[in-house]
Amino acid sequence: MTHTWTRRFVAAIASSSLVLAVAPIAGTAQAADACAPGATCTGNLEGSLGVSPFEIRVPAKFNGTVLLYSHGYRFSGPIPAAFAGPAALGVSTNPVYAAASIPAFAAAPPLGFGSAVVYQATNKPEVAPNDAVAANLLAQGYALAGAGYASQGWAAAEGVEAGEGLIRHINSGAIKGVKGIRAWGPSLGGLVSATLAERNPGKIQGVLPICGALAGPEQAFSAAMTVLYSWKTLVAPTLRVANYQSYPQALGDLATVFTVLGGAATTPVTPVGYPLAQANLLGGLMAGLPTKSSVYDGITVNPIISVLAANPAIGPVAANGAASAQGYSPVSAGASSAVAMLQNVGTAAALGILGRYDLEQRARKIASIPATDSANFNDNVNVVYNNLLSPEQRGEFADTLNATTVMPNALNAMVAAMDASVGDASKRYAANPAAVAAIRALPAPKGTYKVPTVLMTTTYDPAVPDGNTGYYYDSLKASYAKSKSKAPFKAAAYYTVPPVDGWTKFEPGGKAPSTPLSIAALGGSGVGHCVFTGEQLIGSVATLDRMVKAKTAKGIKVANRAFWQVPGINGDGGYTPDPLKRPNAK
C-alpha cells in the first residue's frame, strides 16, 4: 500500500485529545491464598510508578520453578489504523492492543489517516511468548508468572518495579512449593529481566534475556538516529528526527518514512536527487541494520535471469539488465540486500521515531526540561559518518551503492553530503546534557555477572541488532574474570540462523518474490525482531535449567551441546556478532 501523507495533517490533529496511557487499575496485591494447582490467578501490584496487573498460571503438578516473564516493548501512543497492520507495525492483530477512536484521524490524507480507528497498548500481563509455548512449559511443571507495566513505551522502570513486586508476591505465598524463580523476556523485557537478575541475585536463580536491548536505550536510539539523519540528508529533508514536542510531530515523521517506502518501487530518486535504494542502504549499513529480511535473503536472484542468460539473443552478460528492464527483481545479491534494507528501515524507523518521542517525554518529566529546551539525548554534532561504514561493508556493498545511473560515484557523494555538516550544531542534533542524564538514569543492566545466564537472539534483527547480545555476553565475561571467582562461569550466548542456502521464493514467472512462500521457507528462524520457533524458545528454557543445575564446567558444556542440536541454533561456539555501531566512540 502506498501512502501519501504529508506534514500538513499535523495541524489537523494537534488539538486532538490523545490518550497516551491506559487508565490505572485500582487495588494492591497482598499475600493471600496460594494459587491452586491447575489454576490461573490474577491481581494487581501497586508501586510508586503506578498499578500493574499480574497473572500467575500454576501447573497441575508443580516442579518448584517459577518462570517470571517480562514482556517486550509496547508503543505508548495510539497507532493509526493505517500504520497498524501486519505489513507495518503489526499491532492491529496483537491482543495486547485495543482498538479505540480519534475522530481527527478520519480525515483523508494528507490531513489525516483516512480512519478514526487507532490501536492503543494496554497493560495486559503476559506469562510467555505465546500460548503454545505456555502450554508446553506448564505441561513440564513450570509455574508461569508475568506482570503488565504501569505505563507503556520504554517502560524499563515500570517493568523492573512490576517484576520486583511480583517476586515479593510469589515469595509471600502466592504459589506453594516454590524452589526458585527464573526471569526471562524478549526485547525490552530482556533488558528488564537482566536488570532484575543483577539487582536481585539472591531471589532469582537464573536469567534468559532473549533478543534483549541489553546495551540500553542510548545505544538503541543512536542507531535509529543514524538511519533517520541519513534520511533527512539524502531522502526526506522535512524529517524532524529528534526533539519531538508533540505526538503528532512524531506521527508526521513516521508518515513521511512510510510514504517514501511505500512508493520506493516507482520513485527511484529522492526529492533531493539521490538514488533512494542506495541512500536507504547506506543509512542502514551505517546503523548496523541487517541486509536480510524475511522475504529477501541477500543472495537469491529472480529465476528469470538464468532463463535470459540461456537465450542466445541475450546471453549471461546482458541477462541482469534485460530482467531489470522487464520489471523482474532482484537481479543481483546486492539488489536483494537493498530491498531487504527498505523493509528493515521501516522497523527501525518505527522504534526510532515513536520510541524516541516517548523517551524524550520521559526525559522532560524526569529532568524538568521546559518545552522551550531540547529533550534530545543522542548527540550527532561531531559524528563522522564515513567512519561508521566499515571496510568490510565497503568491500561487500560498494558496487551496489554505486550501481545507479542517477549519480556517478554515488557512495562517496552520499557520504560527503552527510559529513559536510560535521561540527555544525545548527544542522546536526546536539544533545541536552539534562536529557542524557535522565535517560542514563533509567534502569538498564550493567553487565555484572550475578546468576546463570542464557542469551538468545536472532542473527538478523532490524530493531535490536545481535551485537547487543555479544556486547552483554562480553561484559559478563569481563565481570566474572574481575571477580576471580572459583565457581564455573555459567553463561552462554546463542544465535538463531536462517537456511544457509537462502529462502527467497517466487511464484512461477513472478516478477518479485512471493512473501508467503519466502516466509514459509524461512521457517521462523534467524530473521526479524524476536522471531523464534517454539522449539527454540522451549529449548532456551531447558538450557537455562541445565545451566542452573550444572555443577562443573563439563556440565555447562553438556548444556551447550544440547541446545546446539535444536534446528536453527548456531552451533558455532566461536561465533561473535558484528560489534554495535557507536557513533560517538573515540
Give me the count of strands. Answer: 11
The general outline is globular
Strand order of the largest sheet: 1-2-7-3-8-9-10-11
Largest sheet: 8 strands, mixed
Terminal CA distance reads 43 Å
Structural class: alpha/beta
Helix content: 25-40%
Strand content: 5-15%
Mean of pLDDT: 92
Q: Which regions have little confidence, pLDDT < 50, spanning 5+ residues?
A: 1-30
State Rg.
Answer: 24 Å
| Helix and strand run | HEEEEHEEHEHEHEHHHHHHHHHEHEHHH
Multimeric state: single chain
Question: Any overview of this molecule?
Answer:
The protein is an alpha/beta fold and 586 residues long. It folds into three domains: 9-23 and 75-121, no CATH class; 40-71 and 125-215 and 452-506 and 529-564, Rossmann fold (3-Layer(aba) Sandwich); 218-439, no CATH class. The chain has 18 helices and eleven strands. The model is unreliable at 1-30 (pLDDT under 50).
Précis, in short:
By secondary structure, the protein is of the alpha/beta class. The chain contains 18 helices and eleven strands. It has helices spanning 9-13, 81-84, 131-139, 156-174, 188-199, 217-234, 247-262, 276-287, 304-310, 315-325, 333-367, 391-402, 410-419, 433-440, 467-483, 515-522, 534-549, 553-564; strands spanning 40-47, 50-57, 65-70, 79-80, 97-101, 117-121, 143-147, 180-186, 206-210, 453-458, 491-496.
